[in-house]
Amino acid sequence: MQSRRVQSHKLFERAKELMPGGVNSAARAFGGVGGTPIVFESAQGSTLVDVDGNRYIDYIGSWGPMILGHSHPVIVEAVQEAAAKGMSFGAPTPGENDLAELIIEAVPSVEMVRLVNSGTEATMSALRLARGVTGREKVIKFAGNYHGHVDALLVAAGSSAATLGVPNSPGVTAGTAGDTIVLPYNDVAALEQSFQEHGPSLAAVIFEPVVGNMGLVEPTDAFLNALRSLTREAGTVLICDEVMTGFRLAYGGAQERLGIDPDLTTMGKIVGGGLPLGAFGGKRELMKHVLPAGKVFQAGTLSGNPVATAAGCATLRLLKSDSPYARLEKLAERLATGLITAASDAGVTTVLQRVGSMMTLFFQAGPVTDWESAARSDTALYAKFFWELIERGVYFPCSQFEALFVSAAHSEDDIEATIEAAREALRAIA
Ligand SMILES: *Cc1c(COP(=O)(O)O)cnc(C)c1O
What we know:
Elements: H1 6-18, E1 40-44, E2 47-50, E3 55-58, H2 73-85, H3 94-106, E4 112-116, H4 119-134, E5 138-142, H5 160-163, H6 174-178, E6 180-183, H7 188-198, E7 202-207, H8 221-234, E8 237-241, H9 253-258, E9 264-267, E10 278-282, H10 284-287, H11 306-321, H12 325-346, E11 351-355, E12 358-362, H13 371-374, H14 379-391, E13 394-395, E14 404-405, H15 412-429
Parallel strand pairs: 3-13, 5-6, 5-7, 7-8, 8-9
Antiparallel strand pairs: 1-2, 2-3, 4-10, 9-10, 11-12, 12-14
Helix pairs in contact: 2-11, 3-11, 7-8, 12-15, 14-15
The protein binds pyridoxal-5'-phosphate (PLP).
Pyridoxal-5'-phosphate binds next to helix 4.
């Protein structure tokens, strides 16, 4: 058991003295499942190898970016080539044009784009742009949606904020949080009422088009329609946060798959091919207000970094030329069906929610439609399930409130082996 992870333990004990909680991102700290995080040495395709030499079939993919699997040879080569030519210039490079063109071509609503370094920067900047252009201050977000660690959006947030039970972070001022209105996801009536009350002062509504950060939750058509029509009527900027879903649920993101036409879109994760890169973009009418074309401040020493844009371009070109989406759908559907059957055979109450290659096995009867229903899950039972899977060489999300990701590098054998492992794990915890 833990003796198989001696080096992981040693390294993590040391890490705790060096970094708060031993990590550089709260989502990795295993707060939702207890125990010691596993320290990794390398990864190839669908396989993670930890510092003790244990192997795991990976369903995190670095929380989304690795849709083509780890260490894809074409992407590795693109990165090596770019790095050898210069790591950063702080000046324009051709790769920035290439990536911007790929994004604009892929995402229907995006006419202009600005490259940044993370998803958090993308949502922060999109929010500033919406406020700057409208001259309004208030913003609506939805409980259990996560948009990075932007102060104004760290209110009733999902992901590690949900896992660790800190919906409001110390350090976020009452003034900042006071401009954020939190509504339940999928609640059309609440949305309508909020627009009636605050319409003229609403700068933006930001939302996850398919939520991954409270476990997987789908939007209803009525909710998507209300979002678009209410924001349009009120002159409020609709920001579709596709940091997780972009290039994941379709090449053009959730907006292509679900037919959403947002004003601004935020991206991260896959768009950087595993390197730190984010982007925000949208209608030219809005984007022309970003500095230096307009007055809304945005800048970054490493923004549009040539090594990151090389990884992003290589990833998007592969997704475009050799579309994995049909295969991802098939693999994910097989995994979902296998998990559902395994749970029901073991007599464990679960509901599986899936869109494309993202899914969550919730330990409750469901359906899960918003944060309130997500929170009803049996997180203690999920934690047991997680550790039983680890012992069987399968790496699932270390929280009930995170989606898992199937990658194009998963084989049919990987999926069958995972279902068998889950079958044993569910039997063990039943
Ligand atoms: C991951 C994520 C972010 C934050 O991106 P970082 O690169 O971690 O800053 C924002 N929004 C959504 C929907 C995400 O999944």
